[in-house]
Amino acid sequence: MQREIVHKLEDMSIRLADSHAHLDLEDHFPDQAAVLRRAREAGVLLVINVATGLADAPQVIATARTSPGIVAVIGVHPHGAGAMTDQDLAALDSLAADPKVVAIGEIGLDFYRRRAPEEIQQYWFRRQLEFAVAHKKVVVIHTREATPVTLSILREYRGRIKGGVMHCFDGSLTEARAFLDLGFYLSFSGTLTYPKAGGLRQVAEKAPLDRILVETDCPYLPPQPWRGKRNEPAYVVATARQLADIRGLTLEEVATHTWDNTLTAFGLQKEAVLAQYQAANP
Ligand SMILES: [Zn+2]
Ligand SMILES: [Zn+2]
Hints:
Layout: H1 2-11, E1 16-21, H2 32-41, E2 44-50, H3 57-66, E3 70-74, H4 86-95, E4 101-110, H5 118-134, E5 138-144, H6 147-156, E6 164-166, H7 173-181, E7 184-188, H8 198-206, E8 212-214, H9 236-247, H10 251-265, H11 270-279
Parallel strand pairs: 1-2, 2-3, 3-4, 4-5, 5-6, 6-7, 7-8
Helix pairs in contact: 1-11, 9-10
The structure holds zinc ion (2 copies).
């Protein structure tokens, strides 16, 4: 029976990965079990669950431990940089030892909301990059209206950081190439489906197929069909479908490529991910 379930998962025509979700952010998902069931029914069999700080990091890891197909990313978002301390970094240190933690993030710079001064954001961005180097982890990067500084800081770590993902990428083709040159993957969110995102769709058309991912960034940024609603991992299919339209591929092809790319970006094995469903005895 369990073997049949895994066999069924192997045979699903659509197998998608949501490369960036916040399943444990505040109280956005009181119905998390139902949300994850819908994700699985939609073929979303891998979800990268990302912490925004120390408030949600322990639960992000707990969810990854108890739910199949979910892994954890922990770090402090640039919005939290203003209040970050050395003790916080020490707390992350003990959490990062958990085998469910596959990356450090989301970390970076946000000069749009600017909830912390730029210099403070840069300071903690570098400290957390050092942290990722020390833990031999890839990184998940948030950058908003800060691309030149984000790029120059990431260049300081060229050859030391193992790589990672530019999450919710919405830059130009030139910026895309610069991040790709540094070994990063580009992850497209539901914003790719928005009517005004013509420039981003041109980038998504030209980016190398083996370096692109799809994500929800849920509960935020729902794709066009669900604008105004809470976003959830099952909706990543709309972004994948948009990508398929842009590239003249089938949804199945985009799903397969972005699933494989997500596994590679985070150093995961397909068999190990699918085996979690077997172990969970659904
Ligand atoms: Zn972000
Ligand atoms: Zn996020």
